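> @MW can you paste both from yesterday?
MW: sure, first one:
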Amino acid sequence: MKFKPTALLSLFFATALSASCCLAQSGNGLDNPDWTEEQVPAPPQFSKDRLIPLDMPAHVSVLVGVDPQTIVVGSDGVVRYVIVMTNTSGSSSAVYEGIRCISDEVKTYARLSASGQWSMLSNPAWKAVNDNMPSHHAQAFARQGGCQNRLATSQQEIIKALKAGRKPSQGSKYD
């Protein structure tokens, strides 16, 4: 079968248009004024024994890790997860957050209190991942695999990327 160049070009543009329509219909793009965040589930249970460490700047004295079993990619394109921070004395704190990869924004939904109970934030707001916050763990999570090319992939792909980015000679408590 022989195709004319114009027919091939038309087929190419039709395929490209079809693909872009499908992406636009997913509802997670920045150009979608109707995007809404799905109902946020309760903070998941986590384990300090499963943590994948995040590479943090040298000046950060706490160990920061994410429990891979808490990573969930929502139908709204938000990656939700639990981050655990452990200080040099061994005490830990945790946060339940979501990252909207397409807009490079993070939202903290809850913090683990000293009593071990989750404390939900009353009015969580989206903030730029690279804002000057006290901890840059959200940015580390996003850049080390939580978001890939500003897209939320799948739990398996995120875990694979996080593990692939680990530096084996860190001497982390998580090893």
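MW: second:
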Amino acid sequence: MVYFRMRYLVKARLKSGKSKALLGSIDDGSLGKGSIAGDEYTYNMKEARLGSDGVATWVETCFCDPPLAEERPYWEEYFELVNVKDAHSRRNCRHENGTEPWACCNCDCTGKLEEKLRGQGEALLERLQKADFA
């Protein structure tokens, strides 16, 4: 596997009947357990926004080619991935253009996009916490 580090805009629809399980895995810290991506899954769910169309959106940092090769099985347990695309132009990526290896580790290249997302829809995690699973 070739490793890249890019930021992806992920759009995914929560699978029917998976809300309680997703919230439980976030709460008990088991979301993504066994993945090299570590705490990134929980961070993504804290940042994810839920649109009126029921689609959750977040920016994910990933080393894989193809995108989300490592993360996909973990996400697909709970979500139907609707769209995964570059969150910004690769030609502007300092890692990709060779000016700064591993630049994504501390990069703010998607800061404006992430700020914009925070103003859209509602926080997915808050929606999950409000849900009645009885």
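> thanks! The radius of gyration is 15 Å.
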